[in-house]
Amino acid sequence: MSFQIIGTGKKVPEFALSNEQLSTMVDTSDEWITSRTGIKNRYILQDETLSEIGGIAANRALEDAGIEAKDIDLIICSTIQGDYITPSLACMIQKEIGATCPAFDVNAACTGFIYALDIAASYFARGTVKKVLIVAAEAISRYADYQDRATCVLFGDAAGAVVLSSGDNLLSIKLTADGNNEFLTIGGHKGNFPLRDISNHNPYMYMNGQEVYKFAIGSICRDVTEVMEQAGIQNEDVKVILTHQANSRILEAAKSKLEIDGDKFVSIIDRYGNTSSASIPVMFDELKHDGKLVKGDIIVLSAFGGGLTTGAAVLRW
Ligand code: COA
Questions:
Q1: Taking a C-beta distance cutoff of 8 angstroms, is the pair 225, 214 a contact?
Q2: Largest Cα span, the chain
Q3: Structural domain for 284, as ranges
Q4: Ligand 1 centre and the CA of 37: distance in Å?
Q5: C-alpha span between 297 and 317 (Å, rounded)
Q6: For labelling, which of 122, 238, 247, 255 has a CA lying 20 to 30 Å from the CA of 95?
Q7: Which one is catalytic: 77, 91, 107, 244?
Q8: Is 201 among the catalytic positions?
């Protein structure tokens, strides 16, 4: 017993930031960003909170599933950080939507949605839940360093949600973690204890882009191959592949190495940038509402991110 996805939703902030507008704030250009990353636009939180956009995505997923907040038995939020350190984002979204069930956050950076699916699968296997809401909501613009042009241009904010009900549609799943604080970090809060030296503290994102780039391509190819083998499916069985959206060049490299029909890889990076763990549920919502998924379709997921973490899964729609 695992689960099936019965509803999807998404919400991005109101403020759209194009490459042209970003070029007035940061020493960069539309030409550089487009040719190196494929990104044209991203959305950035201004006056909204992450809880609000997460709550809207959640309500849309509930409506799509045809159920109410009171029917949810568990809320799992994937986020690197909600609006508060405590309460968790999951508790804030529980309040936004008027649910009463247990709620907690999981932080596996950009891989968090796949970690959340795996946790949900364990709850379904124990038989203690009938409906689970997963919301992946991220505000990386709060941590991007807008004085570091190599990283800040990549990220956008977004929330994506799915409602799960019991079923047998998770065919395989794999998670990895390899603790590494050299390639991708965001420093935590250091507090104001008077005798602690915080002079060298960097609260913003640091990334070694080229190392993460190599790690991403290698992990997508390894993880996708493994979960497809575990699920016993061939390339021709796959309807779509949803990989974490970080850079269109990463996607192109993975496509050519995997020898799977390139049209099966979904790309939304041009419109949203890298929205961390929200990118996969946002893609689910777009595919569902564009009528591109039919019952029985085989979907492969793959993500990678800070930690360093990776995850992949095969689902039947
Ligand atoms: N605009 C203009 N020029 C820029 C720039 C920007 N936004 N960012 C970097 N540059 C410049 C650099 O200063 C450098 O100039 P130089 O040659 O004069 O020194 C040049 O562009 C090349 O920089 P480099 O860092 O080598 O570029 P790259 O081709 O490796 O691309 C990334 C950088 C970040 C786009 C790429 O490494 C990447 O996508 N990595 C993976 C990141 C990722 O996936 N992160 C998320 C993980 S979840």
A1: no
A2: 62
A3: 172-316
A4: 9
A5: 5
A6: 122
A7: 244
A8: no
Domain boundary among 118, 142, 168: 168
What one-letter code names the amino acid at 113?
Answer: F
End-to-end CA distance of the chain: 15
Residue 244 a catalytic site member: yes
What distance in angstroms lies between residue 45's CA and the mean position of ligand 1's atoms? 24
Angle between helices 50-65 and 89-97 (to 10 degrees): 60
Query: pLDDT tens for residues 87-120?
Result: 999 999 999 999 999 999 999 999 999 999 999 9
Distance of CA 217 to the CA centre of its chain: 17
Please identify, among 145, 168, 191, the residue that sits at the C-terminal boundary of a domain. 168
Identify whether residues 186 and 147 lie together within a single domain. Answer: no
Same domain, 214 and 236: yes
How many Å apart are CA 87 and CA 38, to the nearest integer?
36
The number of distinct structural domains making up the chain is 2
Residue 259 pLDDT level (bands cut at 50, 70, 90):
confident
Pair 266, 202 in one domain: yes
Q: Domain containing 265 — which CATH number?
A: 3.40.47.10
